[in-house]
Amino acid sequence: MLKLENVSKFYYNKGIIASGFTKVNLELKIGEFVVITGESGSGKSTLLNVISGLDSYEEGEMYVNGEETSHYSEKDFEDYRRKYIANIFQSFNLINSYTVYQNVELVLLLNGYKKHEVKKKIYDIIEQVGLTKFRNTKVSKLSGGQKQRVAIARAMVKDTPIIVADEPTGNLDTESAKEVIEILKRVAKDKLVVVVTHNIEQVEQYATRIIKMHDGRIIRKYRSKKNK
Known about the structure:
Distance between the termini: 21 Å
Radius of gyration: 18 Å
Helix content: 25-40%
Strand order of the largest sheet: 6-7-8-3-9-10
Order of helices and strands: EEEHEEHEHHHEHEHEE
Strand content: 25-35%
Number of helices: 7
Shape: globular
Number of strands: 10
Low-confidence stretches: none
């Protein structure tokens, strides 16, 4: 699905070059629940941004289904994000004045679907994240855990092969965090799910693979003992 060969990301600011991450080699496949961890500034979110096409890269090569992306233009990356990537954010990025149903529906309407075409699909997705009885509730009335489940539903309904999540449990209590990670684990059965977190204890037992970063480099790759 995705393959990174000696990929590096640099930032240029007022003549100073800073490294986001250096010489990353990684292969990610459908059916995996991959966790990228490390302390603040380790490069984990920058790596996620490159994987998801939000950031370009300066060295190496990232392959998508065997296709090189180093030549991609901004338009190419827009097409890549639309076709392959669904994002889940720590801050939810929902419309609080919309209902659960309307937040999920909006993704499909923006992608050219008509309202009458999507009703059953939206109901099915909302049921999968356990929010059926809240589907007509405004998001502003929901708890943090429920909002993150709406965000997951919105990512699922886009129906892309890759879902990326940057600190998806960062604002949640322990029980809500567990529920969110369990949903993502189920989603990963037929998609590639990549999660960035500094709280490895929350996700370690669910991950198929864990990638630890430090100072912009991968220092360890391993499989969770419970998922070997």
